[in-house]
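Section 5.1 Outputs to date
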Amino acid sequence: MQLGFVSAILADQSLDEVLAFAAGEGFDCVEVLCWPPGGPDRAYGGVTHLDVSHFTQAQADDARALFDKHGVGPSALGYYSVPLSADGAQAAAAVEHLHKVIDAAAMLGLSNVNSFAGANHKLTMEENLARFAEVWPPIVRHAEEKGIRIGIENCPMLYANTWPFGLNLAHSPAAWRRMFEVIPSGSFGLNYDPSHLRMQLIDPIAPIREFGPRIVHAHAKDMRIDRHRLDELGSFALPMDRSTAKIPGLGEIDWGAFIGALSDAGYDGPVCIEVEDEAFTDSLAARQRSLRISRNVLRPLIG
């Protein structure tokens, strides 16, 4: 496996600065965020470390030279919008840009692109699956043609205005099974993040036994369940009203068990730290420290 991090936490740094930091701290790779410039203004979203809006092979060659200069590889290109959004304009823009991200990954000689499946939070599971069966097969065929694997992250994207379905269909093992029935392609898999399962009170390790062959990329983010809040609010409350995102080692996930389950499943790809821990967001120094702490937790397990 290769240890890296998601570039979103260093949003105010250039790609050159991000890669220089990664190299200096002994990281193997970075997941490079590729939102279109001027993307959505939300926490950890809308980050553009590589603008692929009008990407050319010359730009790809320049980017590859930058990775080579620092000796840090790109684990994947990341773009997490909502291709099944209730907002038709947002859905169309997400699909259009996702195609550009796939094309850019191919120009860079990469194999992975990470995204959300998306969802219309106003529809039922069955209605969202029907939309998924219309929208996603052409995207995956494009990825197949380019030699790219799409890893769908399992974040539910649950907010007060998207409760109870959220903005991402791929939130649970039951949903994954249905999605893979619709699209059995080897170019379509999971960007597996255990924190989003723990947040939903699901065992974050057990699904790897079944879905290990579908994992094409992994995120490392921890989660802490606030038992007092859970007892006060109940399980029907918004999950993040009773949970707190933490960096690896400061939450409840057994990282030895997680890495062990991945290796047992034959996974040997990137594990990228994703920092959304509010205790480490006040300054660049704090955000960099969060990556160092996370690295120190995971590096002995990955090697």
